[in-house]
Design goal:
Layout: H1 2-22, E1 26-31, H2 38-54, E2 57-62, H3 69-81, E3 86-89, H4 98-106, E4 110-114, E5 125-128, H5 132-146, E6 151-157, H6 163-176, E7 184-191, H7 196-209, E8 213-218, H8 221-233, E9 241-244, H9 248-257, E10 262-265, H10 268-284, E11 294-296, E12 302-304, E13 310-312, E14 317-320, H11 324-328
This protein binds alpha-L-rhamnopyranose.
């Protein structure tokens, strides 16, 4: 009996394998700003979870070594040749990718941006992690949490062309111009290009050129970790506080070490998961990317597209010594 069950199982497994070979899985590409970024690694994990849940999908994860639009253009051309069904991209430039993404759409590929937006005519919809004004207000609140008496503040961003960081910095400036922030003075904005080394050097430069600096606010997970390390290495813990958008797993040591009091982020696993659900709805034709549409995001819920076919996932969540350890195990 036992033997017969085993044989049957083996036969079923063999049948499944040949069925899989006969009906090759649909390929869906997740194109990230650059490889080696923990934020996108977490998004990839979520994308794979969604692919498994939906079935018959294969995630092609790709990104250039450095966060440039040129690198992403090359990748998209290769993906067009591979006949992927959908391309979900976190863009290194809102405009430079539009021509190649239009070409992809002409070949029947569904295109959406997530995290960092592509201009409206280059994609069908955009999945933002959270609303831009909300992220801007959160960054400003974090600055005041780091330096309640105000003082000099500098921004360490990602690349100068990044749609998401530029929009968040603009929104933060709007909030900083309101009365509760009268004592906060923004002295500099520098770019670490989402490279650890360059971000570290830029943070060191800020510490040198602004001896009275109170806060470095980095709206990038790569930048915030590098800035915290620079503050620690330069023995400025307690004088200069680092805040912004970070991964609990990468910030735990810096919260414990005192360079960071608090920071924020949304769940990057959920972001990757949600974008695959949105891409799948475009491929299936149940979502077209028109304003007002409701886009199903699986276990995350749904989002409604605004007049620019943009939707937001969730509110940013704040971390500090009370909760960072728990979330560090997740992302
Ligand atoms: C970096 C990237 C990404 C951004 C996060 C917060 O990992 O720049 O685009 O969303 O930071």
């Amino acid at each position: 009996m036992k033997y017969r069950i085993r044989t049957t199982l083996a036969a079923v497994a063999a049948a499944l394998c040949s069925a899989q070979a006969a009906f090759a899985a649909d390929k869906m590409a997740l194109v990230v700003k650059s490889l080696g970024n923990g934020f996108f690694d977490a998004a990839r994990q979520g994308a794979q979870e969604a692919a498994k849940e939906l079935g018959g999908l294969e995630i092609v994860y790709a990104g250039p070594a450095k966060a440039t639009a040129e690198g992403q253009v090359e990748i998209i051309n290769a993906l067009i040749a591979q006949r992927v069904k959908a391309i979900a991209i976190s863009a290194n430039d809102p405009d430079a990718l539009v021509p190649v993404l239009k070409k992809a759409q002409q070949r029947g590929i569904k295109v959406l941006s997530f995290d960092s937006m592509v201009r409206k005519d280059g994609r069908q919809l955009h999945l933002a992690p959270s609303s831009t004004p909300m992220i801007g207000a959160k960054l400003a609140a974090l600055v005041l949490d780091a330096a309640p008496a105000g003082g000099e503040v500098a921004v360490l961003s990602a690349t100068a062309q990044a749609t998401n960081q530029n929009a968040w910095i603009a929104a933060m400036k709007t909030t900083l111009a309101t009365p509760p922030y009268a004592k906060v003075r923004l002295v500099s904005v520098v770019y670490g290009d989402d490279q650890t080394d360059k971000s570290y050097r830029e943070a060191q430069g800020l510490l040198k050129s602004h001896p009275n600096l109170k806060v470095i606010v980095a709206p990038t997970t790569v930048g915030i970790a590098a800035a915290a390390r620079a503050v620690q290495d330069e023995r400025r813990v307690g004088q200069v506080f680092v805040t912004g958008l970070g991964l609990p797993s990468e910030m735990l040591g810096h919260v414990k070490g005192g360079a960071v009091k608090s920071f924020a982020i949304w769940n990057p696993v959920d972001l990757g998961y949600s974008v695959v659900h949105a891409a799948n709805a475009l491929v299936k034709g149940s979502v077209k990317g028109v304003p007002g549409e409701s886009v199903p995001l699986g276990r995350v819920g749904k989002m409604t597209l605004d007049a620019s076919a943009e939707g937001a996932m969730a509110e940013p969540f704040t971390f500090n010594a009370s909760n960072v350890e728990k979330f560090a195990k997740m992302y």
